[in-house]
């Protein structure tokens, strides 16, 4: 499938940004640059990137914000000069680092199409030949002859992508362009990209949507802190990446801590424990009994409502309930403090990492004040899929 | 030469930039392009009033020509140079969005900025010459090739200067502030309001370092007296081409780092 010569080859590519904030530093920078010496005092945005992209082997870029994905794309697009390593490009590259970059607000849509397309390297004659297709794709009707400062952001983005569709590069670099625009526009873009891929195009796609990465890319690379964390089959890399996110979220939430709400004299969850364990959370075996208990502070002295929820480590809600739904009234242990005890016998969550979350509400259950979380690990062996076991029975 | 082939291959982009530059200057104005001619005409009127009516200056060697014609010959090329360099200095910084997102020959932005100013002021120059000669001012239009060559040299000098200032401006914002005083000095150091002949002998060699002098003087001599052959301007044109090449080399070297500083 992949031909011998890669479309893109990066060898040890690194990018360091100068941190010249003082005026004198800037003056020194000019002299350094003119003498062709490397810049001192730097922020390392990318380092040691080795990557090959072959024809038809579209690559997805994933990673958290600030990991260096955009810098990498800009480096390949030629906007950023790498400070280390080599880049070899064998083919026509077209980069969509931002839809609508190069548009002038005072220009009409039509005038902007001409300017943006000539920025992408098309001649006037080529643009005129493709104008109808571009306008049809953008689908903004008679507004095309209005200055684009009057456009909605969605219209600008549609026009921007429409211009890009008229260029048929060997490599199309896109940075988060699918995240903008409405549902039908996204679908249009994705179907255009699929057609482009079928036509032999190669895509370099940076996206936070794992769905798009898996749908459009064969390979994926996970960039973390300016380095390649993982490279491989798109579905494998995206799965690892998501798992890492879940772990990180779990680590970022240390659990039940006294919160600010309490200091302000508002309703607050003062204590939350799982099977007697506090902030550090607990581990239980699948099917065992979980007891959630805690103390809620109510400044008005009336019994408050407590809401409890189970979430996946990435924050996806699984199940939630509130004490007033079951008509349960919390019992007072002092004028302002009320306790709750909830047991869940035979917990059917599948093995994995979860979060238990508690909210304090006022006596009417109208207003929600506080949020306290506690990690929960369910252990056990199971090949079942999903988050929880549903009671079931097989029949003959 | 590779730059010329890039220039040709992507001429529609360059013309697009020039068109945009001219258009955007006068969008939303009532009289549009008249502003371009209004300012130099006003300056000319002020100089004529101050020097002729107040100081009662009599310039030697003017022949049948008036003081107004004498200043007009030099004022428009000067305005084109000053305005184009001052505007083009911001060409990269003010198009930061473009430069940070799209790869294209960034010098086009500077070239377009300089070209649009020159197009506007050259038009103004032609208009003023025609108006003055309709008024009865004797110009030597046979010297037109020399005049055109002088304008071309002026354009090249402006381009060289703008390539340097625009790329330095990205990194060091002082460049823009330096423009005002520097151009004021240069304006009086160039024989625009006075002929070189009136300058004391001791100072003259120093003034002749200024390349603008070698544009203005032949241009004026050609228009007012019909003197000066085209060849006399060729060394200057050669120099200005060399300056453009050197300036472009500096620009290209710095342009790799534009994204770092924008």
Automatic annotation (TrEMBL), chain A:
Keywords: ATP-binding, Cell membrane, Membrane, Nucleotide-binding, Transport
Keyword NAD attached: no
This protein's GO CC annotations: membrane
Domain ABC transporter: 25-250
Segments traversing the membrane: none
SUPFAM superfamilies from the UniProt entry: P-loop containing nucleoside triphosphate hydrolases
Pfam families per UniProt: ABC_tran
Molecular function as annotated in GO: ABC-type transporter activity; ATP binding; ATP hydrolysis activity
Family according to the record: Belongs to the ABC transporter superfamily.
Protein name: ABC transporter ATP-binding protein
Protein's organism: Parazoarcus communis SWub3 = DSM 12120
UniProtKB/TrEMBL annotation, chain B:
GO terms for biological process, alphabetical: lipopolysaccharide transport
GO annotations of cellular component type: plasma membrane
Entry keyword set: Cell inner membrane, Cell membrane, Membrane, Transmembrane, Transmembrane helix, Transport
Localization in the cell: Cell inner membrane
A Pfam cross-reference name: ABC2_membrane
Parts of the chain that traverse the membrane: 29-50, 62-81, 108-135, 141-166, 178-197, 229-251
Main subcellular localisation: membrane
Any GO molecular function: ABC-type transporter activity
Recorded topology in the membrane: Multi-pass membrane protein
Record-linked InterPro entries: ABC2_TM, ABC2_TM_bact-type
Domain called ABC transmembrane type-2: residue spans: 31-254
Family of the protein in this entry: Belongs to the ABC-2 integral membrane protein family.
Name by which UniProt lists this protein: Transport permease protein
Organism annotation: Parazoarcus communis SWub3 = DSM 12120
Lineage: Bacteria, Pseudomonadati, Pseudomonadota, Betaproteobacteria, Rhodocyclales
